[in-house]
Amino acid sequence: MLYPLKFYPIYKNYVWGGKKLAALKNNKADENQQVSESWELSAVSGNISIVANGFLSGNNLQELIEVYMGDLVGESVYEKYGMEFPLLLKFIDAAQPLSVQVHPDDEIALKRHNAYGKDEMWYIIEAANDAEICLGFNQNINGEILQKSLRDKTLLDILNFEKIKEGNVFEVPSGRIHAIGKNVLLAEVQNTSDITYRIYDWGREYDAKTARQMHVDLALDVIDYNSYSTYKTEYEIIKNKGVDICRNGHFSVRAVDFDSTIIRNYVAVDSFTAYMCVDGEAILECNGKKESMVKCETVLIPAEIDEVKLIPNRHARLLEISMY
């Protein structure tokens, strides 16, 4: 019988990373170590998550799907995605801004890379008082205007910047230009894809020590050049209930904020469920098995499990992620 699964985090270090994640990971990483991203649940080639608890410890995510198929991920999920786990879950710690970038949709990604495109969702866990993100444009533009702004070094004048705080949610669909700003810790849910087109890197692209490849030519026919009236997802927390914060056709995310024991039922759900802890501590109990969670930890609930009891240590907030 399957049980709540924890996986060893896969740490990534980039030029913009900070030191908060290492400290939050309970000494699993040196607290003075720079950790840009913790890939919590990954099926990206070369970065397959490995089980860290229970009798399946040491097996990787792909091996689990080979053996348990729909019992692990859900019958409809297995039918659509086969051996590939469909989501990549991350915690991101940005001490400096990430590159301004965009991701292709499924159609373009399939044509160019034989891969899926990428939609993302961000949940802000911590943010400095002056922290912000870049998301979309502040006016309607076109490819010619974008290229001129890059030549003239005026790109920042046409980007949309959003002040952020803990609990803010932003959807980042394929085609939407974006960048995480400095002094931000967030949870990211995305399709299993590692395709990114960078168009600007805050001057780091001109320094031989920090330069990374830019992809302006590839990005031009991917970008959504429209400006929108709002980019932030508005929602209201209902204590001890799950509240929808993202449904994008690829995945769904709910915020579950609780200070007493609650039951989450999945009898009618043909999907795995993943929990990312964004605040507090909790215990997950199902089929007589218990698994603890603290801030910036992730647990995968196999699809064959119909019910989970969530027990807070005073208070907890989890992101509840599935494919329905």
Question: What labels would you give this structure?
Answer:
7-stranded antiparallel β-sheet, 7 helices, 21 strands, mainly beta, about 325 residues, Jelly Rolls
Give a description of the structure.
The protein is mainly beta and about 325 residues long. The protein folds into 2 domains: about 220 residues, Jelly Rolls, CATH 2.60.120.10; about 80 residues, Sandwich (Jelly Rolls), CATH 2.60.120. The protein has 7 helices and 21 strands. A 7-stranded antiparallel β-sheet has the order 1-2-5-12-7-10-14, with no helix packed on it. The longest helix has 10 residues. About 45% of the residues are buried. The model has no long low-confidence stretch (mean pLDDT about 95).
Total helical segments: 7
The number of E-state strands comes to 21
CATH fold call of the largest domain: Jelly Rolls
The shape is: globular
What's the helical proportion of residues?
10-25%
CATH architecture of the largest domain: Sandwich
Q: Identify the strand order in the major beta sheet.
A: 1-2-5-12-7-10-14
Give the total of domains: 2
User: Which CATH class of the largest domain applies here?
Assistant: Mainly Beta
Structural class: mainly beta
What is the CATH homology-level superfamily of the largest domain? Jelly Rolls
Query: How far is the first residue's CA from the last residue's CA?
Result: 23 Å
Quaternary status: single chain
